[in-house]
Amino acid sequence: MAGEIDPVRVVDDAIEDGVGIGRIADQLVPFVDGDLAGDDGRSAAVAFFENLEQVMTCGGIERLEPPVVEDEQLHAAERLGLFDLAEDLLEPEDIPLRVPDLAVERAEVTACDADVGVVDVAIDDVGDDRVRVPAPALSVRELGKTGANLDVYIEIDVGTRRCGVPPGEPAVLLAKEIQKHANLRFAGLQAYHGRAQHIRSMEERHGVIETAAQHVFHTKRLLQEAGIACPIVTGAGSGTFMLEVGAGAWDEIQPGSYAFMDADYARNEWAAPLPRFEHALFVLATVMSRPAGMAIVDAGLKASSVDSGMPGVWEMPGVSYTKASDEHGWLEGKALPALGEKVLLVPGHCDPTINLYDWYVCVRRGFVEQLWQITARGALT
């Protein structure tokens, strides 16, 4: 049996070559009248790493400077001081904003800019003054009571059936409630279709996004009839973003997983107008045992999330990762790797896998160049 070594998270060239050079930032965004934001629910906008600042140097991007990915979304507010009353984010005359009075799910921290002192939230509930709603389930009325100047997005449910008010009149009523509070500004609509990102068929994905677009157009039309401006509609993800662009209902797109990709996204059908992004994220594992007909690696459930399927085995045709226990993974197939051999695994789901690690090991052409800290590590604590 080979010595057991903890699996390591590896980031390869593709993240820089595929993201910073000639992909979404350089090719797509300059041709659409919109912005590039973070992924999944317009979550907290925080720099993923400092060395790819060119990723977002393209026309139309004003809200964000460095690139954004999902693993830094959940508790990005902590880095900006929100847990310390966010005094650096608010004007002196504002009442300090206290987390957990502003946090996850119903009132999601979505973008924080320490330079201009802006906090955006997405929300889907008016609230009831008769009931004290505990954090994190904040409502418009609860936000209004904070006294903090906030840009508020209304999340509409365009098909995910997760968060969001129904499109149309319920969103208009919520916008009117926002306008009753002097410290709140209606900033637009959050219309993210999470379920659509992993629909395998391009034709079906396109149909789902077209339906979502009609919900957005309908809601915007009712807002306009009510005399309420809708500055931004934000949404889209790595599996659909060009479909949202083509539909014309969105002003800002939120792809994030494209920077890494994972085995689940790879199972999607990819065709024009969606580009197929390269894998840039791997778990480096070691074969620790070679029973008959299989190879056991030191990377199991504690090394890679399997909620979206088992990891892929990189550049080993005919070899599959078939089963996982806490600290072990089963490889089966032809031409199995030898005892002690290193294996690159493509995570089934990049987001929750990243949360298992403290560092990225950055590799270019076979050489380790840098280590990047994963600041959201253990974000639930």
Give a verbal description of the structure.
It is a single chain. The protein is α/β, with parallel strands linked by helices and 381 residues long. It folds into two domains: 24-261, TIM Barrel (Alpha-Beta Barrel); 277-373, Lyase, Ornithine Decarboxylase, Chain A, domain 1. It contains nine helices and 16 strands. It has helices at 14-20, 24-28, 76-79, 140-146, 169-179, 202-225, 241-247, 263-266, 350-354, and strands at 8-11, 35-36, 107-113, 118-123, 150-155, 184-191, 232-235, 252-253, 281-289, 295-297, 312-313, 319-324, 329-333, 342-346, 359-364, 367-373. Strands 1, 9, 10, 11, 12, 13, 14, 15 and 16 form a nine-stranded mixed β-sheet that branches. A seven-stranded mixed β-sheet has the order 2-8-7-6-5-4-3. A hairpin with a 2-residue loop joins strand 15 and strand 16 (367-373).
Question: Major sheet, described briefly?
Answer: 9 strands, mixed
Count of discrete domains: 2
Give the number of DSSP strands: 16
Q: Helix/strand/pairing class, anyone?
A: alpha/beta
Residue-averaged pLDDT: 76
Percent of residues in beta strands: 15-25%
Shape descriptor reads: elongated
List low-pLDDT spans: 38-117, 130-136
CATH architecture of the largest domain, please?
Alpha-Beta Barrel
Radius of gyration: 22 Å
How much helicity do the residues have? 10-25%
User: For the terminal residues, how far apart are their CA atoms?
Assistant: 36 Å
- How many individual helices? 9
Question: What order do the helices and strands follow?
Answer: EHHEHEEHEHEHEHEHEEEEEEHEE
Query: Class of the largest domain, according to the CATH hierarchy?
Result: Alpha Beta
At the fold tier of CATH, the topology name of the largest domain is TIM Barrel
